[in-house]
Design brief:
- A 6-stranded parallel β-sheet has the order 2-1-3-4-5-11, with helices on both faces. Strands 7-6-8-9-10-12 form a 6-stranded mixed β-sheet, with helices on both faces.
- Helix 1 packs across helix 2, helix 2 packs across helix 6 and helix 9 runs parallel beside helix 10.
- The protein is elongated.
- The protein is an alpha/beta fold and about 350 residues long.
């Protein structure tokens, strides 16, 4: 028998991503040229969506999708443990994917989940709301965990596309509309604010923030906590890679020797800050005090042990899975879980 064409075959033949094909076929937004090309290829290949995909609106197919940026990251590993624990108790299989914090890769994975008829998903999003809108319209139930879609690394920076548009006399692209979907989040605002207040109480005034993807809420809380005027040179961002985190931390230490404290927005960033300080012969906490967002086992093994903002990673995953699998006719509400500042030896008085 001849093999039936899949959504991946259509995407490859049309030269677009799987998510674009899914968006076109579900009536979502796309340029006229792209829409025409996708529909023509789909007709040529005699592509027919699977029964599971067509019937997402009418019935559950079973199974739960879980998308996280990095399975080697301790926090995301804990979050995944929580999702798996609840899914196991509910007797649901889990399809697990790692997006690499790459919006394009995330789009493809969302498209494949749609194709496979996976109708319930817990995701730590990397892309903007447009990635998820076609899936939600197709009947997929989505609960976000840890962050919301469309949170840019640095809301103060407009980015190269914005600058090029201004030079060409074109209006910048409008921001993506928020997606009305529930989430399970940690109370970033309270955690960051408590940490900054603690550092200020030790006499620190030049406090830096080292951030990464999805840190919009955290950096907003940081700016609020340090107060005006905010020294924007002390706020730097890395991409999702560890090399980028190390380069950002080392660059900040070297360009601003006057900083006396740093808040690292995640455990990979905290690791980078510790390594960069060691390489540059900066003593912790004598030369620089460090606070890290996330409490992970190695934080206590550092010399000195790291002061951390602890968030309940496993509970975030468990509650997100509970919300998405128990969702019925009533839309679940967003849940915000508390954080805790755990004081150890990495912070000291400003000298």
């Amino acid at each position: 028998m001849e093999k039936r064409a899949t959504i991946k075959d259509v995407a490859e033949a049309a030269g677009v991503g799987i998510a674009t094909v899914s968006r076109v076929l579900s009536g979502g937004s796309a340029s006229p040229g792209t829409r025409e090309r996708v529909l023509a290829v789909a007709a040529q290949l005699d592509y027919r969506p699977s029964a599971a995909g067509r019937n997402l609106r009418q019935r559950r197919t079973g199974g739960l999708g879980l998308l996280v940026p990095d399975l080697t990251d301790t926090f995301f590993g804990l979050l995944a443990e929580g999702v798996l624990a609840y899914a196991r108790s509910a007797g649901e299989p889990v399809v697990l994917g790692s997006t690499g914090d790459d919006p394009e890769q995330e789009s493809e994975m969302v498209g494949m989940l749609l194709e496979q008829g996976v109708d319930r998903v817990v995701a730590v999003p990397s892309g903007d709301p447009g990635t998820w809108r076609p899936a939600v319209r197709a009947g997929m139930t989505v609960v976000f965990a840890d962050r919301l879609p469309g949170e840019s690394p640095d809301p103060a920076a407009e980015g190269p596309d914005h600058d090029l548009m201004l030079l060409d006399g074109l209006p910048p692209a409008p921001p993506a509309r928020p997606l009305d979907a529930p989430a399970v989040l940690a109370d970033d605002r309270s955690g960051i604010r408590t940490a900054v207040r603690y550092l200020k109480g030790l006499g620190h005034r030049r406090i830096a923030y080292l951030g990464g993807p999805g840190h919009e809420r955290r950096v907003a809380a940081f700016r609020e906590a340090v107060g005006a005027p905010v020294d924007e040179e002390l706020i730097v961002f890395a991409t999702g890679s560890r090399d980028s985190a190390y380069a950002a931390a080392a660059g900040l230490f070297q360009s601003r020797p006057d900083l006396s404290a740093m808040v690292a927005g995640g455990n990979a960033l905290g690791e980078a800050a510790v390594l960069a300080a060691r390489e540059l012969d900066l003593r912790v906490p004598r030369d620089v005090s460090l606070v890290m967002y996330d409490d992970v086992p190695w934080a206590e093994l550092c010399s000195p042990p790291l002061t951390v903002i602890a968030q309940p990673g496993r509970e975030i995953g468990y509650r997100a899975a509970e919300l998405v699998l128990r969702a019925g006719t009533r839309r679940p509400r967003t849940v915000v879980l508390p954080t805790e500042l755990i004081v150890r030896g990495s912070c000291g008085p400003h000298r």
